[in-house]
Specification:
five-stranded antiparallel beta sheet; 3 domains; 276 residues; 5 helices; Arc Repressor Mutant, subunit A; alpha+beta; five-stranded mixed β-barrel; OB fold (Dihydrolipoamide Acetyltransferase, E2P)
């Protein structure tokens, strides 16, 4: 079994990005690109997906390019109240394109997109940036959303996001037995037919009044893992449950001290205080 050391994923992405930059406007087929880097198929696919979601690589008609060689631009969708959008190169940066709602290809606020310019230049009398059209959605800001439910008069469940800055109107399926006050994790499923997005409950976190649920809500919202990978558990299982005599070398034995924790039982990582 191959072992990926910390930092190797980032180095692989850097190498792939460099090979695409060298390829210039011609780009590379995926097979050609794969032969230029030393990586397992799985690591290669993950690195390529990550680069595209970050806007550092794009796939167009079977070939991969560095975005700067496509003649198009990468940006983040900032939705306006009327459904049109501004495209910004980064969060809080000045917009570089204006895109009408019909040209967004169902992109949502916060999505990273590839944009082609419409027309040659911005109109001199307008303070609006030049108009563009979304060519491709590179990365979704919201693959899953944490929130509670709100039911309308017809009994349909709608998501109320935990994060108030998330502007997403989402009907939720699979929530028939979930109370409105309970938090859930909802997968955002976007239809290729253009009918918009819908949600599907993938995890019920529970009542926020129950100890520990508030922690789960924050973990899921920020996509922080709370389970160790199998490889880590397997490695830990090879150690004895109690320290061996040789394990004490270079360490101070504090077992005669009284140890208390300042965190509740539901907290996964506690802060310990010892005193004698």
């Amino acid at each position: 079994m191959s072992i990926a050391f910390p930092g190797t994923e980032g180095l692989l992405r850097q190498e792939i990005a460099a090979r695409l930059d060298e390829a210039g406007k011609g780009g590379l087929e995926e097979g050609q690109l794969r032969r230029k880097v030393d990586a397992s198929p799985g690591d290669f696919e993950r690195a390529l997906d990550r680069l595209q979601s970050e806007g550092r690589a794009v796939e167009i008609e079977g070939r991969w390019f560095a975005p700067q060689h496509t003649g198009w631009a990468v940006g983040i969708v900032d939705l306006l109240e009327d459904g049109d959008a501004l495209i910004r190169p980064g969060f809080r940066q000045d917009p570089t394109f204006f895109v009408r709602r019909r040209n967004l290809k169902r992109a949502q606020g916060g999505d990273r997109v590839l944009v082609r310019r419409l027309g040659k230049k911005a109109q001199a009398w307008s303070d609006r940036p030049p108009e563009g059209i979304v060519v491709k959605i590179l990365g979704r800001r919201h693959e899953t959303v944490v929130g509670t439910l709100d039911r309308d008069a017809a009994g349909r469940a709608w998501l109320v996001p935990f994060d108030p800055k998330v502007s997403l109107e989402l009907a939720v399926e699979g929530a028939e037995d979930v109370p409105e006050t309970h938090y859930v994790v909802v997968a955002v499923e976007r239809s290729a037919s253009g009918r918009g997005a819908r949600g599907r409950v993938v995890e019920v976190l529970g009542d926020p009044e129950v100890p520990g649920v508030d922690v789960l809500v924050v973990l899921r919202h920020h996509e922080i893992p709370d389970q160790f990978p199998d490889e880590v558990l397997e490695a830990a299982g090879r150690f004895p449950s109690d320290p061996r005599p040789e394990d004490w070398k270079g360490r101070e034995d504090l077992r005669d001290r009284v140890i208390v924790t300042i965190d509740g039982e539901s907290v996964g990582v506690s802060t310990w205080i010892g005193y004698s």
